[in-house]
Amino acid sequence: MPNNKLTKRRWLLYTVIVGLIPMFARLIAFAIFKKAQLSILLSESDIITFGLVLGISNIQEFGPQRNTNITAETIFAISILYVIFCSLMLIVSIYSIIEPNAVRPEIIQAGSAIGSISILLYTWRIYHQEEKLHD
């Protein structure tokens, strides 16, 4: 990872905020439309997209071509597994639209929320530790 004090701040501004754009858009739509239902505020696909953005940014940042240490390889491997998990969750989420009674939506919501929060905290910890090393 580059030795840059602004790395964590840039990650927050560019990666986290970009990942949250679908949720912000949904919130704006809810505020604008008169007959909007409260249920539109939470979408599994938005949560999964947020997690995918975080996982893919980790893959890009810690890929084998960028770093050769064990920690970077571990972060890379965990991020690959997480992107696979998100992709599977997205497939199930899409399938639940086609066949609403085939999938329990609360399981998709809980799984995607837990996964996205986990990768957010995991990546935050990585950047925080990296920042401490370079101070």
UniProtKB/TrEMBL annotation:
This protein's name: Uncharacterized protein
TM region positions: 12-33, 71-95, 107-127
Keywords: Membrane, Transmembrane, Transmembrane helix
Domain of life assignment: Bacteria
Organismal lineage: Bacteria, Pseudomonadati, Spirochaetota, Spirochaetia, Leptospirales
